[in-house]
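User: Hi! I have a protein structure encoded as tokens and I'd like to know what sequence might fold into it. I'm fairly new to this, so please keep things simple.
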């Protein structure tokens, strides 16, 4: 089996990201920014077309796909395989967002604080409003969440400051 330089670069990146985050990344892992106390499960990152940032306390179910990269369907064979465009597909996930199992998020998109993306949904770009539920393929606005009072919830984990 013949490996190209591009293949070897990808393998190196996959191994490196896996060692650091415990999850795979297709593309440059330097394009990922992860906040405090984020739950990734086995999220798959594709950073070929942009950056991915995840706010504090956001967490994901299993098999979530965060995809910034795409391909030019007008091209064929190797030309189609090359990622295009290599920028502009950024995914920005706010704080406290829950992306449920098997959801796919395609950039460019912004997901507001405390929003919920339902299981199996496909977010096709755009701006998802903070504090709302989105579901379906493509994901549509479902409802505004009626949050419980803050004083009835544990909103933050205690932080230990080492001497
Ligand atoms: C998002 C979720 C929490 C919504 O729960 P809820 O507030 O009880 O919402 P409801 O069940 O009342 O559904 C509201 C509407 O959204 C739709 N909906 C809910 N989840 C959906 C989904 N995954 N895909 C498509 N539509 C969905 C419902 O059909 C309903 O539509 P309708 O008003 O036209 O009847 C839940 O559907 C979900 O996806 N849970 C994820 C479970 C999971 O992945 N667990 C693993 C742990 S990370």
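Assistant: Happy to help. Inverse folding works backwards from shape to sequence: for each of the 163 positions I chose a residue that suits the local structure. Here it is:
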């Amino acid at each position: 089996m013949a490996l190209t330089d591009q293949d070897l670069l990808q393998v190196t990146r996959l191994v490196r990201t896996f060692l650091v985050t415990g999850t795979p990344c297709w593309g440059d892992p330097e394009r990922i920014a992860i906040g405090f106390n984020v739950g990734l499960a086995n999220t798959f990152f594709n950073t070929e077309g942009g950056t991915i940032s995840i706010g504090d306390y956001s967490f994901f179910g299993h098999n979530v796909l965060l995809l910034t990269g795409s391909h030019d369907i007008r091209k064929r064979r190797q030309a189609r395989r090359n990622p295009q465009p290599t920028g502009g597909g950024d995914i920005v996930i706010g704080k406290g967002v829950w992306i449920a199992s098997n959801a796919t998020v395609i950039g460019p998109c912004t997901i507001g604080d405390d929003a919920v993306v339902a299981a199996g949904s496909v977010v096709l770009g755009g701006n998802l409003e903070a504090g709302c539920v989105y579901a379906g393929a493509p994901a549509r606005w479902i409802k505004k969440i009626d949050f419980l009072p803050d004083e009835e919830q544990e909103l933050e984990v205690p932080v230990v400051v080492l001497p």
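A useful reference point when you look it over: The domain at 23-72+81-142 is CATH 2.160.10.10 (UDP N-Acetylglucosamine Acyltransferase; domain 1). Feel free to ask if any position seems puzzling.
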